[in-house]
Structures are given as structure tokens and as C-alpha cells.
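Project standup — Tuesday

K.O.: blocked on the structure for the chain from last sprint. Re-posting the sequence here as requested.
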Amino acid sequence: MGFWSLFLVASAPIVQLLLIGLLGAYLASGYSNLLLATARRDMNKIVFTVFTPSLMLASLAKTVTLEEIISWWFMPVNLGITFLIGSILGWIIVRMFRPPKHLEGLMIATCSAGNMGNLLWIVIPGICEEEGSPFGSDRIPSAHGLASLSMAIGGFYIWTHSYSLMRNAAKIFHGSQMDCHGLIEAQEKDLYTGEVANQENIISPSIKLGQQTEENQIEIPLLSSGNLHVKVVNFCDKTKEALHTIAEELVSPPTVASIIGFIVGATPWLKSLFIGSTAPMKVVEDSVQLLGDGTIPCITLILGGNLTQGLRKSVIKNGEILAIICIRYVILPVFGIAVVKAAYKLGLVPYDPLYHYVLMIQFSVPPAMNIGTMTQLCDVGQDECSVIFLWTYVVATVAVTVWSTIFMWILS
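H.V.: unblocked you, prediction finished:
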């Protein structure tokens, strides 16, 4: 396969995303005013609760089988390694650049969470269809299955790990705003209390002094004796809050849809009910598939709409964007080659060039588009996320193509 043929295959889905994003930017601009901030927020809720779960459920139930899940067991480990390495590198650049606290989670998420779904869904089968491909056109069904499994497992990591980061960022951001309001109210209250206290001191300073002495004598032993109890209560509250957060993330609509998709795809009699031209419940699968097809266009339109404000209001620095690009397109792909080569030598993955290629390319994709949905849901970092996506996806048109060529050269 020639370089230019591969370039066209690999860059086509990214160019499509950029074109749809530009349309979203126009719809949200003053020339159209159709995709306003409230509309984008409501659309994101629909994407989160309906479109994304439908896409995961339909693709998994249709393309994944129990045998393939067993033979591709290393993919969850591989994706976990990408998130682990990306998180560590993201934490390093956060310590280097010291962004605002509420943007730390966004930077770590964009470094660790890659686009494991729609991008691979288009690129991998497209490469198999190309004449001269090292994988062959007969591997197209396996390519769709690998892309679906990658999207499902990647979605599980994204909607647990990355969603947790964005939820914490939202708590920091909105909590700091509430703290500011609370500080102002406290200052006003202290001012009022001080005025009343001054009046009371003028009326009866000796009585006031006696009351303060008695209060101090009473408060000191209470604080010292209850200190341990307060710490225990705080620890229990934090533990309950952490468990509650984990439970909420595990029962999020995309995660639940992935689990159901795995069950339907791995159970032959369930799969025969929904999948196939003669399936009695085929209309259900067609309806879910139809809903899932709206996921990528809606997410991309929202990102483009946020970009109109992001270019003006974003506080992210050029050096931070460059660091994210270097992590995603320079450091992580090198780690990907090393991880897959080591796994093959240790006998953890079978000899399958297409499978090896998918494992490698998972390290070299741009940030996951679901991060944009999370920023909108959590109402934090939307502008900065749009700017990061703009530059990372522009660079991806060349970076993904170059690394695809390198990966196939290594595997051929």
C-alpha cells in the first residue's frame, strides 16, 4: 500500500470531523445563532443518555462473539496501559505548567483517553479494503469486531477514569465559585457581628469579658476530646462518598450499554433474537443502530460550537497544547510499539498482524471526543477542550497516517 493511499484512508475520518466541527462553529456563531450554549448543553445530555449507549450496544451486539472476546483478552490490558502511561505523563505536564486547578483533570484526560471508537471504526476496515493491504480484505469482519471491542472497552475506561477526573474538576471549579460567594457573605456577616459586638462592649465591657472567659474555658476541652471522633467521621464520610461516586460511574448509561452489548454478543441465542435478517427482534436492533448513528455528528457539532467561544475565552497556554500533542503523537506511540512487542514475545498475544496493528494504533489516536461531552455535562473547561481538540485533530491528519505506515511496516 502506498503512502498516499494510506494517507487518504487515515485522514478521511479526521477531515470529516473537522468539517462537521466547522459547521458547528458556524451554527453557534452570530451569523446563525442556532446552536446556542443552552442548546449545546441539552444536546450533550441526550448524547450521554441515549446516543452513546445506543452506539455501543448496537456495535457490540452485532460484531463481537464469545470466541473473539476470549482470544482478544489482552486488549483491556493494553488500553489500561495507555491510560496509565498517559495519566502519568499528563500529571507531569500539569506539574510543569501549573494550569488552573479546574483544568488539571482536563489535561490529564486528554493525555490518557484516546479516540478508541469512531476513528478506528473507519480507519481499520478502510485499510483492510485497500489494495495491497498487509491484512487482506477477508479480515474486514474481524476489523469491525476489533473496532467495536476497542470502542466498548475504551468507553468503559473513559466513562470511569476520565469522567471521574472531570467530575472532580467540576467540584473544584464550582466549589471555588461557591467559596468566593461564601467568603463575601462571611465578610458581611463578620462586619455586622463586629458592629454589634462593639455596641455590646460599649454598654457592658466587664460582662462581655467574663462571658468570653467562660466560653473559652468550656470550648477548649470539647475540641480536644472530640478531635479523634471528628477525624473518624470525616474518614467514613469520604469513604462513602468515594464508593457512591464509583457506583454512579459504573451505572452510567454508556457503561451499562457496553455490558449489555457484551452479553448479547457473547450469548448465541440472545444474538439470534436481535441480529440477522431473519431475527424476530431485528427492528429493535435497527432502531438502536439508528440512534447510535447520531452520536458522532452531535458530539462534533457541539465541539465546533464551543470552539467559537474557546478561541476567545480559553486560558490554556500554547506550551500546554504542544505538550499534549507531543505526548499523544510522539511518546505514547513509542510506548505502544514496545508494549505490543513485549506482549508478543511473552506469549500474551497470538500472531495476528491486524490484532497487533490495532493494539499499536490505540497508542497514537487523538483525544477521545467523549471528553467534550463530559466538559459540557460538568460545565467546566468547555472552551479549553475545544481549543485542544482543534489542534490535536489537525495534527492527527498527519500523525495518525505516519504512525499507521510505521506500524504496518513493522508488522509486514
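K.O.: great, moving the ticket to review. The chain has one domain: 3-172+245-411. Residues 294 and 329 are 28 Å apart (CA to CA).
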